[in-house]
Prior knowledge:
Blueprint: E1 23-28, E2 34-41, E3 53-63, E4 77-84, H1 86-91, E5 95-98, H2 120-129
Amino acid sequence: xxxxxxxxxxxxxxxxxxxxxxxxxxxxxxxxxxxxxxxxxxxxxxxxxxxxxxxxxxxxxxxxxxxxxxxxxxxxxxxxxxxxxxxxxxxxxxxxxxxxxxxxxxxxxxxxxxxxxxxxxxxxxxxxxxxxxx
Length: 134
């Protein structure tokens, strides 16, 4: 999909070519609810990985169905880092839509160029949203 053609949602990205800051995706948690990631940037600073790495944040949102743009209104970020597009396949997710970052006062703040492991976003969401049983 090129920038002059409208993006059709949902879609599963295979590279960063179709990713835009503000796009969001939901993934299922172990308790059946959903958490949500948001694309913050796609400008990986190195030549290797430029087409497969993107900067993403875990939204402070959890719900019984996948997130909508309205659900994310005013939600902050719980975690952010660089990720590989393979997480969409790993998480069984697709990009569901777009909500411009500026509507929620969000801006990417990539501090370094380390890349998080494939399970990190989901693990952070599990720890934050799923109650622990003793």
